Amino acid sequence: MAAEANAQLAMKKAGWAKEAEVAQVESKKIVAIREAELQREVERMNALTTTEKLKADLLTKATVEFETKSQEANAVLYAKQKAAETYLYEKQKELEAVKAAAEAELAHRSSRGSRDLHTLHSRRLWR
């Protein structure tokens, strides 16, 4: 009976050892699966971080380009406005000169006409 009990005990120990080995293998698999899930999550977060950094870099680059182009366009517009103002000023001065010359000519003719009229009138009176 002791041999039979020893055999049963050995069988139970073997079963327990097998169960412990299975539990250990399952535990290692669970740990490996969890590590893989965590690694995948880390990689996903790294990819998101990289994507956000690229977006920020592109946005910064686009913003700088926009500001540069905007300043260039403003400089061109300013130069054109100043050129137009200069042209307008020159034309106004030319117009003022023409007007002054015309007024002087008119005054001269008016004065001469008045003199001629006075001379003509004086001659008629003396006749």
From TrEMBL:
Q: Which UniProt keywords apply?
A: Cell membrane, Membrane
Q: How does it sit in the membrane?
A: Lipid-anchor
Q: Where is the composition biased (Basic and acidic residues)?
A: 106-119
Quote the cellular component terms of the Gene Ontology held in the record. Answer: caveola
The reply to whether Membrane figures as a keyword in the UniProt entry is yes
| Residue span of region Disordered | 106-127
Where in the cell does this protein reside?
Answer: Cell membrane; Membrane, Caveola
Please indicate which superkingdom the organism of origin belongs to: Eukaryota
Query: Which InterPro entries does this entry report, sorted A to Z?
Result: Flotillin_fam
TM ranges: none
The family line of this record is: Belongs to the band 7/mec-2 family. Flotillin subfamily.
Name assigned to this protein = Flotillin-like
Q: Which organism is it from?
A: Salvia splendens (Scarlet sage)
Upper lineage is: Eukaryota, Viridiplantae, Streptophyta, Embryophyta, Tracheophyta
